[in-house]
Amino acid sequence: MSNQLSHLLTQWHAKKDQGEWVLGTIYDHQGPCYRKAGAMMLFNSFGQQFGMLSGGCLESDIAKNARKVMQSGQSLLLCYDGSDEDDLSFQLGIGCGGTLYIMLQLINADNHYLELTRVFDALKARQTGIYHQKIPDNGEPDQASFELAAFADKNSQAKLVSRKQKNEISQWLATPVVAEPHILVAGGGFDARPVVEIAYQLGWRVSLWDPRPANARKEYFLKARNIISGGEQALSSFVQANQLDAAVVMTHNINLDAKAMTALLPSSISYLALLGPTHRKLQVLEQAKLAPEQLPFPLAGPAGLDIGAELPESIALAILSECHASLKQKTAKSISGVLAPAPVGNHLRRLA
């Protein structure tokens, strides 16, 4: 089950009037935490949970408190302090040392479903916006709102903001709402299967194009949202009608790769991976009658991070890791530094 907000709301929306539902939201955090402010989770009276607010260590206690909200009808604020020896998170031996602030709010028709129906509709239409939640105080009615908004940076983080209402200052959480990434895979051969599978596991929307009858067979790509089997014009029409974030071109055919790249020119993608070595990339560009500087998107060719990939699964991992880093505007470097090259002297000592 994906933890993307669109996936969580899809589970909720069809059953929003069945039983009781509670929305759990991290509204602030301090220090190292698995999830950050803006992370959401859903609980219902049937015992189901969708999403995560920690690495799985706090969810049972959060669920217990969510049941209290269902019974009382009142919102609840929780604090898990990993640095406090008397706190549950410390006693569980989690060891992160961070502090999470979580609000639990009932979702029902009386509070307009906390405006989550509007958030759901926006995500379904792949629109962006800002979801506002008032941090509840003294049992007051829950307040939430949603507004459509364009972002210069889709990786904007949730933040607490102050609002003045009736001469009182209240705290609100403003969370950017952005649809899950939509990736196009051009090429439906054997090695495209793990690309589609891993992208789906990440919670991304995956579309697949391959005009060859023997390729892109639906039974091998059950996780693909769309399969386009027509020619270049069909792909061009799809690109123009859909918002794409990234593409992986891997048809193993220079002519088809060139057609895919040409069809993607008017798209809004911010990453394109082209399978194959550098000299093949130049052949594809020549076939497409394009120069690298004419491309409106970064071209990753050869594609992927250098992780020693040789098999289809590891090649898919290398490409999607690079794609993920590109979409998140990260460097993809080792966080711990463990991959930094060791000084020659140290290396020789280890061999001795």
From TrEMBL:
Residues 184-323 form the XdhC Rossmann domain. Residues 17-81 form the XdhC- CoxI domain. InterPro entries: MoCofactor_Util/Proc (IPR052698), XdhC_CoxI (IPR003777), XdhC_Rossmann_dom (IPR027051). Pfam families: XdhC_C (PF13478), XdhC_CoxI (PF02625). This is XdhC family protein. It comes from Thalassomonas actiniarum.
